[in-house]
């Protein structure tokens, strides 16, 4: 499994809740770092799939790279 790091412009628990909801549908292992606005996703799925899924939250999302 590969761990991908993303910047997601989250400001509150509601934002991280939205991220949790969309990622649970993908069935991937993930960790949210709300203070640093980062999401770490452990998955072999294509980066574009992960990025598009995170964008469904309506937040600004940037792929940082592999961790």
TrEMBL record:
One of its GO terms (molecular function) is metal ion binding. Residues 1-62 form the HMA domain. GO terms for cellular component: cytosol. Keywords: Chaperone, Copper, Copper transport, Ion transport, Metal-binding, Transport. GO terms for biological process: copper ion transport. Homodimer. Interacts with ATP7B. Interacts with ATP7A. Interacts (via dimer form) with SLC31A1 (via C-terminal domain); this interaction improves ATOX1 stability and controls intracellular Cu(I) levels. PANTHER family: COPPER TRANSPORT PROTEIN ATOX1. Belongs to the ATX1 family. Binds and deliver cytosolic copper to the copper ATPase proteins. May be important in cellular antioxidant defense. This is Copper transport protein ATOX1.
């Amino acid at each position: 499994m590969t761990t991908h790091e993303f910047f997601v412009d989250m400001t509150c628990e509601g934002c991280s809740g939205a991220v949790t909801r969309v990622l649970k549908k993908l069935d991937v292992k993930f960790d949210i770092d709300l203070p640093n606005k980062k999401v770490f996703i452990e998955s072999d799925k294509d980066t574009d799939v992960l990025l598009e899924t995170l964008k469904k939250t309506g937040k600004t999302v940037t792929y940082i790279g592999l961790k």
